[in-house]
TrEMBL record:
Compartment(s) of residence: Cytoplasm
Subunit description: Monomer.
Protein name: Phosphoglycerate kinase
Keyword Translocase: no
Keyword field: ATP-binding, Cytoplasm, Glycolysis, Kinase, Nucleotide-binding, Transferase
Binding site residues for (2R)-3-phosphoglycerate: 34, 116, 153
Organism of origin: Nocardiopsis eucommiae
Length: 394
């Protein structure tokens, strides 16, 4: 794979696909970790006289402009961090993008509006994606793939565009892959994987593969309830993937057969509604009231998970244990982070929100072995799956 060092970028327009999918509260960025992680590649290109056109997605808009998912606040923050003005194109691949790209001087940077405002970006139809990629290609001379958090997506700006321009892999992708390799090539055991978060259907699928590599799986976050339901418990109004119950039963059976431990919470914090001020209490998993939703693992589960991490030598953690953004439901995530720190294991934390949680709860990033910008992407890498956004850079 070619790296940036192999490209002659001086005076050229370089399209950089980055993952700038940061958590927002209104238009306030609550964690800028992914923007910071994108800086080295952009800075290197600027130093070498490139005209840098950054493209990224934010959230999951439905293929049309939606102001709540605008990257405008990200352009402002990127400019602050780079210490230079970042021009913002009000569209993704239209008139504004073309004019913004054409106006760039050497060393200048622009950010395009959210690539997912274009239906072609996430389309399953290759022709539709290809048409958008053609429009992107008109904006630039070269392509750099550095969106590690999105390399598992077969999307126009990640997968199709590199086929249309001379391209190189970015430094962030290289670093991430180098660290994650340590987890796939003979990890020190016990190897424990902790899974949580809310992208339940995305992440349930990885369990199948993890059963073949990890010694122990700790299940927290929104994923818990599909497991509990599959075991016959009632889960009230908690997040639930009803159509995955059989799959999950299959995982539980296979784990038992193959001697992989799946550790489920024994209690959860159940709230009347999805709100910080909602009445809530810790209840055992066999006593979740029908009108309540589980928003965190409970204190007994925190202890249990810490015990299950104490002897680990390698840990990968993706997905918060609860709705850590609201103080009453942050305990599980805080306890898990602390247990990782207390263990002697090589620890990797992956995912936009997981990394944000670690930082927002006041932990020192340096206390972990590696904080990855990829959640789903890291998991798919660990599964050994082909990653479209990396394959396309070959
Ligand atoms: N029990 C729960 N019910 C609902 N949401 C939950 C629950 N537990 C955690 N969450 C939410 O999960 C979200 C994060 O999930 P997600 O799967 O996106 O993780 P991530 O670390 O960002 O990984 P990725 O980078 O793949 O997105 C948080 O916003 C958190 O509030
Ligand atoms: O947050 C992430 O994991 C990446 O930015 C990818 O986002 P997606 O799951 O919406 O494709």
């Amino acid at each position: 794979m070619r790296t940036i060092d192999d490209l002659d970028v001086s005076g050229k327009r370089v399209f950089v696909r980055a993952d700038l999918n940061v958590p927002l509260d209104g238009d306030r960025i609550t964690d800028d970790g992914r923007i910071r992680a994108a800086l080295p590649t952009i800075e290197k290109l600027r130093e070498r006289g490139a005209r840098v056109i950054v493209a990224a997605h934010l959230g999951r808009p439905k293929g049309a402009p939606d102001p709540q998912y605008s990257l405008r606040p990200v352009a402002a923050r990127l400019g602050e961090l780079l210490g230079t003005e970042v021009a913002f194109a009000a569209d993704t691949a239209g008139e504004s993008a073309r004019a913004t790209s054409a106006a760039l001087a050497d060393g200048e940077v622009a950010l395009l509006e959210n690539v997912r405002f274009e239906p072609g970006e996430t389309s399953k139809d290759e022709t539709e994606r290809g048409e958008l990629a053609d429009r992107f290609a008109q904006l630039a001379d070269l392509y750099v793939g550095d969106a590690f958090g999105a390399v598992h997506r077969r999307h126009a700006s990640v997968y199709d565009l590199p086929g249309k321009l001379p391209h190189a892999v970015g430094g962030l992708v290289l670093t991430e892959v180098e660290v994650l390799k340590r987890l796939t090539e003979d990890p020190e055991r016990p190897y424990v994987v902790a899974l949580g978060g809310s992208k339940v259907s995305d992440k349930l699928a990885v369990i199948d593969n993890l059963l073949g590599t990890a010694d122990r799986l700790l299940i927290g976050g929104g994923m818990v309830f599909t497991f509990l339901k599959a075991k016959g418990y009632e889960v009230g109004s908690s997040l639930l993937e009803n159509d995955q119950l059989d799959t999950v039963r299959g995982y539980l059976e296979r784990a038992e057969r193959e001697g992989v431990e799946i550790v489920l919470p024994v209690d959860v914090v159940a709230a009347e509604k999805f709100a910080a001020d909602a009445p809530h209490a810790a209840v055992n998993v066999d006593a979740i009231p029908a009108d309540r939703m589980g928003l965190d693992i409970g204190p007994k589960s925190q202890e249990l998970f810490a015990e299950k991490l104490a002897d680990a030598r390698t840990v990968f953690w993706n997905g918060p244990m609860g709705v850590f953004e609201m103080a009453p439901y942050a305990g599980g995530t805080r306890a898990l982070a602390q247990a990782l720190i207390d263990s002697d294991a090589f620890t990797v934390v992956g995912g936009g929100d997981s990394a944000a949680a670690v930082r927002s709860l006041g932990f020192d990033e340096a206390a972990f072995g590696h904080i990855s910008t990829g959640g789903g992407a890291s998991l798919e890498y660990l599964e050994g799956k082909d990653l479209p956004g990396i394959d396309a850079l070959a």
